[in-house]
Amino acid sequence: MLQALLWGGLAGSALFIGGIIGLYFNIKKTMIAYVMAFGSGVLIGASSFEMLYPSAEDEGLVPTTIGFISGALFFTIINLFLDKKGANERKRSRQNPEGHSGLAIFIGTLIDSLPEAVVIGISMIDTKVSMVLVSAIFISNLPEGLSSTIGLKESQYSKAKILILWTTVFIITGLCSLGGYVLLDDVSGHVIAIINTFAAGGIVAMVSSTMMPEAYEDGGAIVGMITSVGLIISLVLSVL
């Protein structure tokens, strides 16, 4: 139980670390783009190899498909709403457009992180923690925490308030991981498959609509290769 809390918190701590970097250091946009591209590849790989394929193999294509499409649709709807509130640029390291909302940026980042944390807890019910998932989430959260922090600064949030927000995310992700481990321990395999693939759908939709386009815009064509390296590394970690 304690391990679920700690692993979920560790994955979420990357947002806090990224926030610290965004507050006190100037990082080149291209470097952020490269990390984001690598994290995109690892996240897509983790979603495929650690969540989708095992669910399809163990529980069949029906719950896997239902969960995945539902997760992608849910994230897309939420993201469309947040876009209107100014959170569409939460992963960018440049200034956000006129009328952006610091609170929307925070909420959007939190929504990005919650499904991932729950899946970490679920992965520990019958086996040890998936290091592929933890690594993927940690790597992808670093540039998100960094760029979101810049957006919050543009919304005139103080350094103390920004650190409190990221500390809150750190705590919530740890609790969500714990909740996934404790509350879902006795549910059926079909339910676990739907929850896992729901999260996978949300992750893939998030990566495709936010991380990858922005990584390409700031990093250029090389990010395609970096994303591919991230994906194959996730495969290697999955089979080891």
TrEMBL record:
Domain of life from the UniProt record: Bacteria
Predominant location category: membrane
Assigned keywords, A-Z: Cell membrane, Membrane, Transmembrane, Transmembrane helix, Zinc
Transmembrane stretches, start-end: 6-25, 32-49, 61-82, 103-125, 162-184, 190-207, 219-239
Location within or outside the cell: Cell membrane
Membrane-protein topology: Multi-pass membrane protein
Entry similarity comment: Belongs to the ZIP transporter (TC 2.A.5) family.
This protein's name: ZIP family zinc transporter
